[in-house]
Structures are given as structure tokens and as C-alpha cells.
From TrEMBL:
<keyword id="KW-0472">Membrane</keyword>
<keyword id="KW-0413">Isomerase</keyword>
<dbReference type="InterPro" id="IPR046357">
    <property type="entry name" value="PPIase_dom_sf"/>
</dbReference>
<dbReference type="Pfam" id="PF00254">
    <property type="entry name" value="FKBP_C"/>
</dbReference>
<keyword id="KW-0732">Signal</keyword>
<feature type="domain" description="PPIase FKBP-type">
    <location>
        <begin position="53"/>
        <end position="140"/>
    </location>
</feature>
<keyword id="KW-0812">Transmembrane</keyword>
<keyword id="KW-0697">Rotamase</keyword>
<dbReference type="InterPro" id="IPR044609">
    <property type="entry name" value="FKBP2/11"/>
</dbReference>
<protein>
    <recommendedName>
        <fullName>peptidylprolyl isomerase</fullName>
        <ecNumber>5.2.1.8</ecNumber>
    </recommendedName>
</protein>
<dbReference type="GO" id="GO:0005783">
    <property type="term" value="C:endoplasmic reticulum"/>
</dbReference>
<feature type="signal peptide">
    <location>
        <begin position="1"/>
        <end position="21"/>
    </location>
</feature>
<feature type="transmembrane region" description="Helical">
    <location>
        <begin position="152"/>
        <end position="174"/>
    </location>
</feature>
<dbReference type="GO" id="GO:0003755">
    <property type="term" value="F:peptidyl-prolyl cis-trans isomerase activity"/>
</dbReference>
<dbReference type="InterPro" id="IPR001179">
    <property type="entry name" value="PPIase_FKBP_dom"/>
</dbReference>
<keyword id="KW-1133">Transmembrane helix</keyword>
Amino acid sequence: MRLWGACACFFLMLCISGLRSEEESDTSQKVVEHVETEILVEPETCTETSDVGDTLHIHYTGKLLNGQVFDSSLSRDPLVVELGRKTVIPGLEQGLLGVCAGQKLKVIIPPHMAYGKRGFPPSIPSDAALEFEVEVVTLSKQTPWQRVVNNVIPLVCLALVPGLLCLIGVYLYTKSSTPKVSKKKLKEEKKKSKKK
């Protein structure tokens, strides 16, 4: 009986210590609900800021909130980001709106705007908030022609699709509703027209 009591007591202590370690890890992990942006270096002049449709060349270092680096572009060419084209995770794209060339910033991204529950194994666990240190190397504004190509043409194409479907439907309806003449009748009509 004493052995049973000792085992139950030991099991209870394990459960309590497990709960404590979970609580401690939860409190040490910062809860991030929305994208937080902090400017680290401001350029001397900022005449143009980024907007949807613009192209940025950036260097970045991506970290977990515990400081563990999972990716960096510093040893590669700058990453090309087209805002509004989903070339990066949504939280980073949101953090890059309204920035200038030459600006350095820190962007903290909540899990739902990063990799969410699936994570990006093995380097990014599930439900991980991310921190990016970003340097905007260059900013290319969207030209009016690019704006037309990116905004107007897709809308025109969307409008054409129902129109084309209607035309195909009318064609198929008229084809199916016209009386069908058999080949035998066609031959007889040809013979009659030749005799005349």
C-alpha cells in the first residue's frame, strides 16, 4: 500500500512540475496579436514611401522571438518583394507598406500572419511569432502602365469570362434547338435540286 501511495505522490509531483514548466514557457513567450513595426534607422530624406504594387529589394534576418535565426539574406542577393503579389508572408508584406529606401526596421509578426499552425519545419515551429530585421535597399514605384496591367486588365478579363460563357451558351442552345436533318433527306434534296 505504501508503494502505491508513493507512486501516486510521485505522479502528482510530475504533473504539477509539468504544469509549472508549461506556465513558465507560456509567460516567457511574448503574445503577439498584430504586426508591430519599429523603425531602427531612418534615412536622411524620404521622398517616396512604398505602397501596394511597388517593388522593394530588401535584406532581412528572420528570427524566432527567442532570438534563434532561421533565415537571412545577408549572404545572398537582396530579396525582391512585389507588394500585393504575396511574394512574402502576409505579416512581412504589411510591415513593408509605407517604408523608404535606406530604412531599417524591425517587424514582429503574429503566427496567423506568418506560418500559422503548420509552421515551417524544422526551423519554424507551429504557432510561432516571428521577428524580421529588414533593410530596404531599393524602392521602385509602380508606373501608370504597370498599374493598368496589374489592376485594370484582370478586371476586364473577369468581365469577359461571363460574356464568353453567355455566347457559348447561346450558340449551344441555337445548335440544339434547330431541327436536325438526316443525311438521307439531305441526299434526296440534292438529287431533287439536280433534276431541276
